[in-house]
Amino acid sequence: MPDALAYLAGAWHVERVVRDLAGGAEGRFTGRADFTAEPPHGALRHVEQGAFTWGGVTRPASREHRFEPAGDGTALVRFPDGRPFHPLDLRTGTCVVGHPCAADHYRGEFTVLGEDRWRVVWRVSGPVKDLLLTTVHSRIGAASEPV
User: Fold this and answer.
1) Any long-range contacts for 115-122 (C-beta under 8 Å, 24+ apart)?
2) 79 — phi, psi (to 5°)?
3) Percent of the residues in the chain that have a pLDDT greater than 70, as a whole number
4) Taking a C-beta distance cutoff of 8 angstroms, is the pair 97, 108 a contact?
5) Which residues fall within 8 angstroms of residue 39, CB to CB, at 6 or more apart?
6) Residue 92: is it exposed, middle or buried by C-beta count within 10 angstroms (0-12/13-18/19+)?
7) N or C of the chain: less Cβ packing under 10 Å?
8) pTM score
């Protein structure tokens, strides 16, 4: 993808499986992610909302990020408070990133699966967490995804 922000812009159906590798528990998130323009500098506001089921209990869940243009079709992902999260370069179709979080480490692998589908796999390891999060995004309104 020559331009990460142009590719991500729009609405996506989100399916995430969260596996606790230490304890064996598994949870699921189902929802929607919207990447909307945030003027004036071409950034995208990412808002994800849906339901997360863990241990048989389903609760509302949401998160938010800001994707800023970083040049040459790449982006910088930030937390809502402005702290940097990770760079994102989808020009080759894959991007591996890392992010330290307290004593744990997040390693993410983004993969473009097609014009209307992409996946991110986060491996979280450290003394507090031992997780594998696999998320598939399907563009809403694409031939393979109902509106």
Assistant:
1) 115/139, 115/142, 116/142, 116/143, 116/144, 116/145, 117/142, 117/144, 118/7
2) -70, 165
3) 97
4) yes
5) none
6) exposed
7) C
8) 0.92
| Buried-state track 38-74, b at ≥16 Cβ within 10 A, e below 16 | eeeeebbebebebebeeeeeeeebeeebbbbbeeebb
- Between CA 141 and CA 147 the distance in angstroms is 5
Structure tokens at 112: 């473009």
- Assign 143 a pLDDT band (cuts: 50, 70, 90): low
Give the bridge partners for 34, in sequence order.
11, 47
For 83, phi and psi rounded to 5 degrees?
-65, 140
Counting every residue written for the chain, the total comes to 147
The tens digit of pLDDT for each residue in 20-31 reads 999 999 999 999
Contact (Cβ atoms closer than 8 angstroms) between residue 19 and residue 32: no
